[in-house]
Every structure is written in C-alpha cells, then in structure tokens.
C-alpha cells in the first residue's frame, strides 16, 4: 500500500481519464487483512469489449465486482482508490449503489435466472426501477431486450414459462436480456460462458460482439481464445496486480511482460 | 444526471428499504423483549421464595407436653405467653394462625436431638404461616392480605420487638408438596424428575443411537426403511399429549403399570424424545465423511468395526449434544405426564421408580392452580429451578459441541 | 428390588461368559495350534450375548405379561357371581383385591371371597417371581454353556456377533414404527368404543359440548352432550391468533437474521431466540395466566372492551410467542438455502435488499416457508399446557377473541385428570379427541415435510 506499485505495461490508462467510460486509479481491495488487489489502474474505453484474463485467484473477478460495487455486499471487504464512471467517482458516499447498478449491469458465471417466468425475469429490472409507465411499454422493453439478446425467436411463444426451464445457453442469454432491460451503460460479465457448451458459448460470444455497438463491456474470462475472439482490449492480472494491458492483438502476438507471455503460451495458469 | 422522477422514486425505494429493515429489527426486538419480560417476571416474583419468614418466640419445653408428643401445644403456649392479653377462644385461634401448622416439627426434632432440653426454656425461631410471610415480604399489605386487624397488630408488635426475621428457605428444597405454602417444597418433584430422567436416558440413548446407526450405516434403501424414516420424522412432530394418551392406554390400562410412577413417566418421555434423538444422531453420523468409512473398509474392517471404531467415536459429540437437548426438553414436558397420573398430590419424596411421584413442571402446574397468594412466589421459584436446570443442560450441550466441533 | 438383584445377577453371568469365552478361545486355539477365526474379544462377546439375551427375553416377557396372567388367574378363582360382573365393576373389584393384597384399606368390607382372592393374588405373585428368577437364570446358564461348547478356533465368532448386533439394531429401529402403531391402535380402539356410545356424526358435527354425564339418571344436565365443534372452533381460533403473532414476527426475525444482521449480532440473536423454544410450555402457561391475561383484561377495560380473564387472546398471543422460534428457525434455514447467485443477480440489476428479499428470495423460499408454517400450525394445535392454564373450560362457540373458549387439548386433560372410571363415555371421549388431534397434526406434518423436502431437492 505504501509502496506504490509500478504502473502496468502497455496503455492501461489514458492521459485524460475523463475520456474513459470507466476509470480506475490505484485500486486496492482487502478482504479482512488479506489484500486481493494491489494498486490497479485501468481505463475502460466506451463501446469496446475489454477482457480481463489471468490465472485463478488473480483478482480479476474482484476488480470486476468493484465496478458496480457488488463488493459492498461482502462484510469484510474494503476498497481503496478511486473508480470513475463517466468522470464521476462511484465510491463517494453520495452515490447510490442501487442507482449505480442500474447503470452498470452484471452477468454472472453461472446462469442465474429467477425462479419466475421468462417475462418476469426480464421485466424485473424495469419494474423495480420504474422504467415503464404502462403494461404496453413494459412489454415493449421485454421484447426488445429479448431481441437484443438474440433470444426472442426461441422464447416468444413461451414467455409465461419458467426461466429455469430453459437450456443453459438460453438461460445465460436470458440473464443478458435481463441486464439489458434496465438499459445499462456498462455490462460486466464474469466468465459468462464457463458453464456453457461450445455451441452456446459461440452464440453468447456473437451476442457480445453485437452488444458492443450500444454498451461498454468488461468481460472476465478464463479462456484466452475467448478473450482473443471477442475483445478489443485485454488486461492481464497476476497476483492481484494488473501486469499488462493493451490492444488484444498486441497482447496475444507481442506481449511485453514475461508473465503475460508465459500465461498466453500456456506455461502457467 | 438523474432526473427528478427517478430521484423521487429512488428516495421512495430507500425509504421502503429502511422500513423493511426496521420491521425485521422490531420483530427480533419483540421476541427478545418477551423473553426478557418473562424472565424478569418469573425472577421478580420468585426470588422471595428462597427466603422464609420466621418468628422467634420463647418456648418452654414442658416435660408433660413433650411426653405426650403435643409439640403443637408447646407452640401455642409459647405464643400465649408472648401475648398474655389474648384470652378469648377465637382470638387465640387467630393468634396461633401466625405460626405455621408445621412449626411443631422443629420442636420435636430439637427434643429428639437433645433430650436435655426438656424442662428448659429456649428462644426458638419458628416458621411463620404463609399469610404472615406474604405481609413480611411485602407482597400484600397488612390490610389487603388475609390477616385481620388483630393479627396485623400482633405481627407489628412482634416485628417491633425484632422477633420477625427472614431466613433461608431450606424447606423449599427438601420438602415434598404440601397444602400449606410455607411447608411446600420442590424436593419431591426434583427427585421425581431425576428418576424419570434416568429412565429416559437409559432407554432413549441406546435405542436412539442403535436406530440411527442402523438407518445410517446398515439399512438398505427399501420400502421398509423408508417407512421407518417417515415414521420417525412424523413422530417428532406428534403433539406430546398424544404420547400421554398412548402411555395411559398402553402402560397403565393394558400393562397395568402403577399410576404416577416415575418409571411410566420415563417410558412416556422415552417414546417422546426417541425420534428427536434419532434425528440428531443421524445428522451427527451423516456429518462423518464417507472417506473415513472407505479408508477403514479398505483395511478390511467389517461394517460393525467401522462403526464402533471410527464412525461412532467421531459422531459421539453430536449424538450426545442431541441427546442432552432432547432430554432437557423431556424434563420440561408436562402434558403427557398429566395423562398418566403424575398430577397426584404427593407429600412423600419418592424413593424408587415405582413410588408415586410428580415432576418439576407438573409441580409448577399444580401450584399455579392453587389459590393461596404464597404459591405464586413458590411457583415462580420452582420455575427458576426448572429453568436453571435446563440452562445447565443446554450449556453442557453447547460446551460439548464447541469443544469437539470438527469441520471436515 | 428383587428384580434389580436378578438383573444384576444376569449381567454378572454375562460378564463371566465373556471372560470364559475369551479364555476358552485362547486355550482351544493353542491346543489345536491354529489361529482362531476372530479376535478373542468376539468369542467373549459371543458367549456373553448367548448367555444374556435369552434370559433378558424371558424377563421382559414376564414383565409384560405377568399382570395380565395373574389377573385372569385370580378372576378364575373368584366365585361365579363375581365373574359374571360387567367389566368395569370387575375392574374395581380387582383393584380392591390388589389393594387388599398390598395391605391397603379397601373401599368396601372385606368378605371371605375377597380375602381368598387376595390370598391367591399374593401367592401367584410370589410364585411368578420365583418362576421368573429360576427360568431366566436357567436360560442364562444354559445359553452360556451351549455357547461355550461351540467356541472353537474355526467358529466364525465375529460374523455371528455382528449378525446378532445387526439384528438388535434392526429391532431398535422398529420401535419407532411400533410407537406409531401403538398410538393409532390405542386411540382407535378407545375411540371406537366411544363411537358405540356416541354416534360419530354427533361428535364431529354436534354444536354442544358438556361431557358431564350424571351419576344418577334424574340429575339435571345428565344428558352429556359430545358435540366437538366448539372445541374445534376454539382450537382454530387460538391457533389463528398464535399464527397471527408468530408468522409476521417469526418471518421478519428470520429475514433480519439471514439478510441484514452482521454475523456477530446473528450469533447472539439466534441462540437467544432459540431459548424461547427451550422454555417449558408450563412456564408459558403460568406467565399467560399470571401476567398476560390480567394485563389484557385491564387494557381491555381501559379501552372499553370486555375481555374475559381467560380470553382466547391471552392464550393465543403467548402461544404465538412460543412458536416464533419454530417459524424463524425454519424460515432462516430455507432463506439461507436460497442460492447467493439469485441475490446477486437481483442486486446486480440495482434492486435494493428489501426488493431482492420480497421479490426474489422469499418467492424462491416460499415452499420451505410454507412447510415451516404448517409445522408451526401443527405445534399450535397440539399445544396443551398454555391453553390448559390460560384458556378456559367453557365450550363457547364464538369467534370473539376476548371471550373464553376451550380447545381439544384442554378437554383431553380435563376429561382424563382426576379419578374417573376408565370406561365411561367421558374418558373415552378424550381418546376420540386425541384421535382427531393426531390425524390433523399428522396430515399437517406429512404435508409440511413433503413441501420442505421438495424445496430442499430443488436447491441441493
């Protein structure tokens, strides 16, 4: 903490952090006495997919959960440093995490649809945030969200069936539709395909690429191929530090750090 | 950034959040407040029962009266000597009412222990009657209580002379039940409870553990074992009074066992606590990881050896904890024991498993029903003893669990 | 005491058997110069079990059937006139015989027949005691000798012992079934006798309950009405009040503990709430009668309501408090069993905690919660002491919580406590009520356990 870590290699940060969609500076995270993140600084650029890779326990998920303050829910967790969303510090006491999470949506590792109907799953967010004034408007939101999530053709005749009855891949796309329905600006994805089969994974990856048009996406992934396929920029975490960050192509073809190279060539991980 | 509509909505949502959390805290507070109110009431009403009003009077151990065994007469003449102005017959009766009708026993014991007392005069502290006791302890004022004006006057004069004192109430711990509150004690009920507990423990523990071991370690998964399981789960939730009816029909009417006996009470409580012990023991056995069984089996141990050498010792703390808690629950049980006649008025302290007896909770029930004001504090005090006993048992269970707790 | 001495002797014989078995196994295998099949301890156990178990069975059989056998023998010895008596009268007569034999003063003059019967009774008792001692000792020694002769190095003692132990375990596990069978049979048997006297439809649908059957037929109110509807209604009313207290408080307490309370606070609150479940019901009853009922009555007077001093409200409220921990601990369990991922999904969408709880967690936990509530209702219906002490005896058919009502359990206690002839419809009615109580709570329990089980399977 008192020792300022050296900044990550590559272009992790912009010169003017206000240009970034999400900007983190010197973020430390502690679980009780244990430090999980050490001085992470990174800028996430708008309308790009940023992939965070690294071996298990390297802190990439922890960092992701800082971006919508999901770490607040863990009693012993403490976050130091600053994280900005559109130039606004999200860790000031005045900021409402509830409002923040409406702007920064999240998709989890395991598909976790609510034990409700498909319709109610997607309508959940708009309902709690009061995004619609009428039933018709809500229908509209649900349908467009399902459409954007590429699920509409598969479920349009069974909106009143349980969301838990869908296949794994469909469930995950339902969760994405659920996140989209709140019209977030940023979508965080925590290993969204790790529980899916290859075909479902391909569909979700395709979807992520489409979503890039409208949303800023941060994705944590175990699979380097996936990072290479879907992301424009990649950050490599190791032991709680952001080692290197840059254009995905550059990271995978010409890593600057020995650790990065070791990881992407499969020498550890 | 946030428009006004959203801001208002957010404020409303956060208000709802705070309200919701408040309901939760209020519910916990209500439950705990009740617990506190209950304990405070019981202790507040009951602690005075551990002291007892005594009145010091000078008794002359008249040889003639001692010979005839008329110790009550000694008490009376002592009182009459203290208040020589009282002569009328009914007034005298009122005067004697200040002292407990059981006070003469003290004199008898004194003479038995020291025959040299005969013919001498001694100041003896005698047990006051419950009506006096209540006034002295301040539970009732001299006017509102059952003492009449004259009695109150005598009492005042005795108090002025410093003859009235509060002593530790040993009778309460040693005596059996009595119609006179000042002579009534929980001794008989405590012994009855202990006897019934011994029966319950001796039967329910081995049977419960055996059943749990069978179901968990030996039983094949088939219809019959499933039936047993469903049975046990349901029995655990059958109202206790139904077990009382079973005891009445089976043990008393069919097997002709004696009424009011701790043995029968213990049997009923055994049947009642058995399912609970089985369920707790099974949970403890389940918590032993299969790897240990596999390791032992792999070394060629038989199934029984695996159980007796490895699984049971590891599960024992859990089993004991469950057994203690179930037994504690059984000790506090009242309703089924009413069915098998343990409500009888029993003065003697039971000496065996077949003697008529009552148990502590039933004693509480009996006293709670008595009209005398003095029984209120005794009921509360009996409850304090009962709760203290249960607390000790539960603490024991907690200590056991904490000491031997093992995480796999 | 004789019995204790006998049991001690039998145990001693078993111990001797154990020792002899071990010694013999060692000696014989040394003589034959081969390793015994099992460890010495199994040969000892083998002999001990063979010597102890048959004797114990003899003893238990005697304990169970001695009273019945002696009774029928004594009845046979009675003069024919006495034998023809109706069963209740005969029972009373037998009581007198027993009392006479025990040297207690009887309720009637001692006639020679009775004295003779008492004599027979005593003689049979003594004979029985001697017989059982001889029989069980013979069984023990016989078993010991037989088993000892079979101890040889090739005897598979371990297998034999284990087989036997497993049989014993199976035996123990059937007790639960026998208990249920016993409950059902005893309730059913007495209930059928009751329904012979009082038609079942009158019992189930009758609106008047006054079980005072008169001793003389010309007494007032001798009819003895056994319409149980007021009792069912009273039970229902009090349970309803109890649930009205326990359900919101228990659920919110569970939600607070599972979702809001910091871990340390939870570690304090949870056991404290469970203390409420550990307090004997008789204590609640005392508290209800002594404190809560007068308090409600006075409060009612201030508000201009007439609250009976044995109101359904007082009993119901206190019962509700008693049930809180049952509701809260089951609800706590099922709420914590709801996967965290669902909570995170909701919170990640920007829901507040309470929105998450109300719209995601509770609906997901609903089956488990419903199961817990059903169990709590079953508790409330079967609860006895609180209502015996705080609710009344008067069988009013009313929905007014300020009035006195009575319940099924209260009536069972009142009908059976005190000295009664066992065969009068009055006492038999208690068993009919017990049967209804058993069936209703059984149905609730089965339903609750099913619901909870299905809930657990969903998230396992």
Notable traits:
heterotrimer; A: 269 residues; 7-stranded mixed sheet; 4-stranded antiparallel sheet; 11 strands; 25% strand; globular; C: 460 residues; mainly alpha; two-stranded antiparallel ribbon; 1% strand; flat
Please give a structural write-up.
The complex is a heterotrimer of chains A (269), B (408) and C (460). Chain A is an alpha/beta fold and 269 residues long. Chain A has a domain at 9-111 and 187-264: Rossmann fold. Chain A is 34% helix and 25% strand. Chain A is built from 10 helices and 11 strands. In chain A, 48% of the residues are buried. By secondary structure, chain B is mostly helical. Helix content of chain B is 67%, strand content 5%. Chain B is built from 17 helices and 3 strands. Chain B has a 3-stranded antiparallel sheet. Chain B is extended and about 90 Å long. Chain C is flat, with a radius of gyration of 31 Å. Chain C has 460 residues and is mostly helical. In chain C, helix 1 runs antiparallel to helix 2 (40-77) and helix 2 (40-77) runs antiparallel to helix 5 (112-150). At the B-C interface, helix 1, helix 9, helix 10, helix 11 and helix 12 of B face helix 2, helix 6, helix 8, helix 9 and helix 10 of C.
User: Sheet bearing the most strands of chain A, described?
Assistant: 7 strands, mixed
Look at the structure and give the mean pLDDT of chain B: 88
Taking the alpha carbons of the first and last residues of chain B, their distance comes to: 52 Å
CATH architectural label of the domain at 9-111 and 187-264 in chain A: 3-Layer(aba) Sandwich
* Whole-number tally of structural domains of chain B: 2
Number of strands of chain A: 11
TL;DR of this structure?
The complex is a heterotrimer of chains A (269), B (408) and C (460). Chain B is mainly alpha-helical and 408 residues long.
Secondary-structure topology with pairs:
The complex is a heterotrimer of chains A (269), B (408) and C (460).
Chain A: E1 9-10, E2 22-31, E3 34-44, E4 49-53, H1 60-66, E5 77-85, E6 88-89, H2 97-103, E7 104-107, H3 118-129, H4 135-148, H5 152-155, H6 168-180, E8 186-190, H7 198-211, E9 216-220, H8 224-230, E10 233-238, E11 241-247, H9 248-253, H10 258-264
Parallel strand pairs in A: 1-11, 4-9, 4-10, 7-8, 8-9
Antiparallel strand pairs in A: 2-3, 2-5, 5-6, 10-11
Helix pairs in contact in A: 3-4, 3-6, 4-6, 6-7
Chain B: H1 4-46, E1 51-60, H2 63-68, H3 71-82, H4 89-96, H5 104-113, E2 121-127, H6 130-137, H7 149-160, E3 164-168, H8 170-174, H9 187-218, H10 223-235, H11 240-254, H12 262-286, H13 290-298, H14 303-331, H15 335-339, H16 360-368, H17 374-404
Antiparallel strand pairs in B: 1-2, 1-3
Chain C: H1 2-32, H2 40-77, H3 80-83, H4 87-101, H5 112-150, H6 157-197, H7 200-205, E1 209-210, E2 225-226, H8 229-260, H9 263-278, H10 281-302, H11 312-337, H12 340-348, H13 353-382, H14 385-390, H15 408-416, H16 425-459
Antiparallel strand pairs in C: 1-2
Helix pairs in contact in C: 1-2, 1-5, 2-5, 2-6, 4-5, 6-16, 8-11, 8-13, 9-11, 10-11, 11-13, 12-13, 13-16, 15-16
């Amino acid at each position: 903490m008192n020792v300022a870590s050296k900044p990550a290699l590559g272009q992790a940060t912009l010169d003017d952090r206000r240009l970034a969609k999400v900007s983190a500076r010197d973020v430390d995270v502690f679980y009780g006495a244990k430090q999980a993140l050490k001085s992470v600084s990174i800028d996430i650029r708008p309308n790009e997919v940023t992939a965070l890779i690294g071996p298990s326990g390297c802190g990439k998920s922890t960092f992701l959960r800082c971006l919508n303050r999901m770490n607040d829910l863990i009693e012993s967790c403490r976050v130091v440093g600053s994280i900005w969303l559109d130039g606004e510090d999200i860790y000031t006491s005045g900021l409402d995490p509830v409002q923040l999470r409406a702007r920064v949506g999240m998709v989890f590792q395991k598909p976790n649809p609510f034990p409700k109907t498909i319709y109610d799953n997607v309508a959940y967010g708009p309902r709690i945030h009061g995004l619609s004034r009428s039933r018709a408007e809500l229908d509209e939101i649900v349908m467009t969200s399902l459409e954007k999530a590429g699920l509409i053709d598969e479920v349009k005749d069974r909106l009143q069936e349980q969301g838990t009855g869908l296949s794994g891949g469909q469930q995950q796309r339902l969760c994405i539709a659920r996140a989209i329905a709140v019209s977030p600006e940023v979508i965080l994805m925590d290993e969204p395909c790790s529980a899916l089969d290859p075909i479902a994974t391909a569909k979700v990856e395709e979807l992520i690429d489409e979503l890039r048009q409208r949303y800023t996406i941060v994705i944590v992934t175990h699979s380097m191929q996936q990072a290479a396929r879907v992301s424009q920029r990649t950050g490599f975490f190791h032991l709680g530090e952001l080692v290197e960050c840059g254009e995905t192509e550059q990271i995978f073809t010409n890593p600057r750090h020995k650790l990065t190279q070791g990881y992407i060539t499969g020498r550890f991980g | 950034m946030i428009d006004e509509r959203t801001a208002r909505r957010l404020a409303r949502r956060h208000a709802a959040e705070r309200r919701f959390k408040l309901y939760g805290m209020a519910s916990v507070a209500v439950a705990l407040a009740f617990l506190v109110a209950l304990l405070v009431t019981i202790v507040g009403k009951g602690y005075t029962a551990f002291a007892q009003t005594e009145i010091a009077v000078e008794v002359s151990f008249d040889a003639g009266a001692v010979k005839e065994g008329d110790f009550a007469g000694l008490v009376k003449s002592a009182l009459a000597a203290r208040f020589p102005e009282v002569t009328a017959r009914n007034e005298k009766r009122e005067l004697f009412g200040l002292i407990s009708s059981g006070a003469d026993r003290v004199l008898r014991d004194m003479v038995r222990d020291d025959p040299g007392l005969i013919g001498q005069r001694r100041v003896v502290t005698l047990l006051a009657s419950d009506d006096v006791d209540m006034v002295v302890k301040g539970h009732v004022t001299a006017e509102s209580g059952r003492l009449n004006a004259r009695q109150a006057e005598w009492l005042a004069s005795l108090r002025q002379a410093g003859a009235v004192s509060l002593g530790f109430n040993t009778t309460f711990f040693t005596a059996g039940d009595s119609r006179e509150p000042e002579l009534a004690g929980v001794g008989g009920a405590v012994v009855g409870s202990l006897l019934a507990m011994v029966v319950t423990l001796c039967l329910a523990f081995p049977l419960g553990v055996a059943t749990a071991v069978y179901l968990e370690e030996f039983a094949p998964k088939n219809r019959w074992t499933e039936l047993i399981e469903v049975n046990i789960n349901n029995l655990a939730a059958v109202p206790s009074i139904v077990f009382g009816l079973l005891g009445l029909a089976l043990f008393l009417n069919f097997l002709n066992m004696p009424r009011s006996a701790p043995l029968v009470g213990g049997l009923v409580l055994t049947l009642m606590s058995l399912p609970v012990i089985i369920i707790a023991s099974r949970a403890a056995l389940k918590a032993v990881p299969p790897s240990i069984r596999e390791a032992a089996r792999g070394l060629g141990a038989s199934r029984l050896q695996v159980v007796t050498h490895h699984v049971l010792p590891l599960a024992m703390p859990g089993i004991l904890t469950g057994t203690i808690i179930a037994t504690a629950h059984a000790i506090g049980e009242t309703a089924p024991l009413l069915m098998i006649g343990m409500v009888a008025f029993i003065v003697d302290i039971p000496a065996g498993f077949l003697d008529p007896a009552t148990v502590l909770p039933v004693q509480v029930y009996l006293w709670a029903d008595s009209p005398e004001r003095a029984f209120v504090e005794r009921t509360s005090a009996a409850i304090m003893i009962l709760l203290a006993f249960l607390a000790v048992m539960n603490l024991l269970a907690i200590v056991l669990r904490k000491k031997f707790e093992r995480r796999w | 005491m004789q019995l204790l001495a006998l049991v001690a002797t039998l145990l001693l014989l078993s111990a001797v058997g154990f020792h002899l078995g071990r010694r013999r196994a060692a000696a014989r295998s040394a003589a034959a110069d081969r390793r015994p099949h099992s460890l010495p301890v199994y040969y000892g156990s083998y002999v001990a079990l063979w010597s102890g178990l048959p004797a114990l069975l003899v003893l238990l059989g005697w304990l169970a059937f001695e009273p019945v056998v002696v009774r029928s023998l004594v009845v046979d010895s009675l003069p024919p006139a006495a034998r023809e008596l109706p069963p209740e009268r005969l029972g009373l007569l037998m009581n007198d015989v027993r009392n006479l034999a025990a040297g207690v003063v009887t309720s009637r003059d001692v006639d020679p027949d009775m004295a003779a019967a008492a004599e027979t009774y005593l003689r049979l008792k003594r004979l029985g005691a001697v017989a059982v001692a001889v029989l069980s000792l013979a069984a023990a020694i016989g078993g010991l000798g037989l088993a000892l002769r079979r101890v040889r190095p090739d005897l598979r003692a371990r297998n034999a012992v284990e087989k036997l132990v497993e049989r014993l375990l199976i035996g123990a596990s059937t007790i639960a079934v026998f208990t249920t069978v016993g409950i059902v049979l005893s309730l059913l048997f007495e209930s059928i006798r009751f329904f012979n006297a009082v038609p079942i439809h009158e019992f189930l649908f009758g609106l008047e309950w006054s079980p005072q059957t008169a001793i003389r037929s010309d007494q007032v109110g001798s009819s003895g009405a056994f319409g149980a509807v007021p009792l069912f209604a009273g039970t229902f009313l009090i349970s309803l009040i109890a649930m009205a207290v326990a359900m919101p408080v228990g659920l919110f307490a569970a939600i607070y503990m599972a979702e809001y309370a910091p871990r340390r606070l939870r570690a304090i609150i949870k056991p404290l709430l469970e203390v409420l479940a550990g307090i004997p019901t008789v204590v609640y009853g005392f508290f209800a009668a002594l404190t809560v009922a007068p308090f409600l009555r006075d409060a009612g007077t201030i508000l201009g309501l007439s609250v009976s001093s044995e109101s359904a409200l007082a009993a119901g409220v206190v019962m509700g408090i008693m049930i809180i921990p049952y509701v809260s601990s089951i609800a706590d369990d099922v709420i914590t069993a709801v996967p965290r991922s669902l909570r995170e999904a909701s919170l990640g969408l920007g829901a507040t905690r309470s929105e998450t709880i109300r719209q995601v967690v509770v609906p997901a936990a609903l089956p488990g919660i419903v199961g817990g509530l059903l169990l709590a209702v079953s508790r409330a219906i079967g609860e006895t002491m609180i209502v015996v002490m705080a609710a009344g005896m008067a069988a009013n058919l009313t929905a007014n919580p300020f009035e006195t009502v009575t319940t099924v359990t209260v009536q069972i206690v009142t009908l059976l406590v005190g000295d009664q002839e066992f065969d009068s419809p009055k006492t038999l009615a208690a068993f009919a009520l017990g049967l209804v109580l058993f069936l209703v709570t059984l149905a609730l329990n089965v339903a609750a356990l099913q619901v909870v089980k299905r809930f657990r399977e969903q998230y396992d």
